[in-house]
Amino acid sequence: MSQIRKKLKKDPKKKKRKIGTKKATLDQKQEELKENDLEVLTPWQKENLRYTKEKGGQPAWTPSVIQYEKKNGSETGTIPKESTSKSIEKVHLQEVRQEYSFTDKLPNLKKERRKRMKRRLIVLVSFFSIIFLAMIYFISPYSKVGEIKVAGNQRVAKDQIILSSKLSSSGNLWQEYFNRDQAVERLKKANPRIKKATIQLQLLNNLVIRISEYKTVAYSVENGKYFSILENGNILEKEEAQPNGTNPILENFKDQKIIQLMLKEYKKLPDEIKSNISEIQSTPSTSNSKKITVFMNDGNRVIASITGFSQKMSYYSNVAAQMSEKGVIDMEAGIFSYPYTSESQNIETEEKNNE
């Protein structure tokens, strides 16, 4: 019995020794795993570990891939091989990916830098080249007006157009071109015959003034002098020579609106009536401010009103054909005619009555 008791007493010690040896082997395995982990780490990670250990701190990253399982708040001491191997592989993959992505980005970064440098260089070169060319251009004679041409003028002289525009052949080209609207206004003001004017740039440094003029549609007579009446109703101040065309001669017309209304009615007449009209006088009365007297080339005289003049004149040929002698055709109210002899007799009787 005593021997059996001795054996029983010895057994707990053996168990303790076995447990101690197991712990020692586990510690060795943990140290080996830690050494293996350290071998896997990159140089800057090892340096960081050494620095943090010296300073007594902890690294911001997880240096070890060994993880202890916890149950009920206590460490079991067991280290699964599969988890350690997987964690080591993950660390390897992460490091390889980091190294590959960084090395892969290096050539791309160089290319981007080169592209940026090229762009900056191109911008700078183009900017300074533009400034240089602009300086050369403004020094050269091409920046001055070379020649001033006039096109489209018929009645207005070329020299008069250039003079009234105040464009200078030795002036700055772009200054004269950008102020072309003011030059056009000066042209129209100095020359009422000009209907439209444009200034265009031709070739390198030439300017072209393109003109369209108002047509002369009639002539005004004052004290035996003739003045052109334009299609807009304006009467030019410049005296004209004896008119030889088919345009009518208007006398005693002062109001521009009356002139325009008369010309509007005149345009509606057939060509054979137009060619037969010699002169149109404005003879307003107290009852009709638009009364006119028309002298015909065939020797007759027409008394009418501007309003409806073209419509009533369409009957002129028929009425004139029925007259036995030259006389007056009154179209002011109705349409009737009488010879000059009866008109003179009426004038004489009126004079006698007045005496």
Helix content: 40-55%
CATH topology of the largest domain: Rossmann fold
Query: How many structural domains?
Result: 3
Shape label: elongated
Strand order of the largest sheet: 8-7-6-9-10-11-12-13-14
Sequence of secondary-structure elements: HHEEHEHHHEEEEEEHHEEEHHEEH
Structural class: alpha/beta
CATH architecture of the largest domain: 3-Layer(aba) Sandwich
Unreliable runs, pLDDT <50, ≥5 residues? 6-10, 64-79, 347-355
The CATH class of the largest domain, by name, is: Alpha Beta
Give the number of DSSP strands: 14
Described by strand count, sense and barrel closure, the largest sheet is: 9 strands, mixed
Quote the distance from N terminus to C terminus. Answer: 195 Å
- The count of helical stretches stands at 11
The averaged pLDDT comes out at 76
How much of the polypeptide forms β-strand, as a percent range?
15-25%
Radius of gyration, rounded?
A: 58 Å
Quick overview of this protein structure:
The chain folds into 3 domains: 88-137; 142-213, Roll (Ubiquitin-like (UB roll)); 216-354, Rossmann fold, CATH 3.40.50.10960. The strands form 3 sheets. It has a 9-stranded mixed beta sheet. A 3-stranded mixed beta sheet has the order 3-5-4, covered by helices on one side. The protein has helices spanning 2-40, 43-55, 81-139, 158-165, 173-178, 180-190, 256-267, 271-276, 309-313, 316-322, 340-354, and strands at 70-71, 74-75, 147-151, 194-202, 206-213, 216-222, 225-230, 235-240, 249-251, 277-282, 291-296, 301-305, 327-330, 336-339.
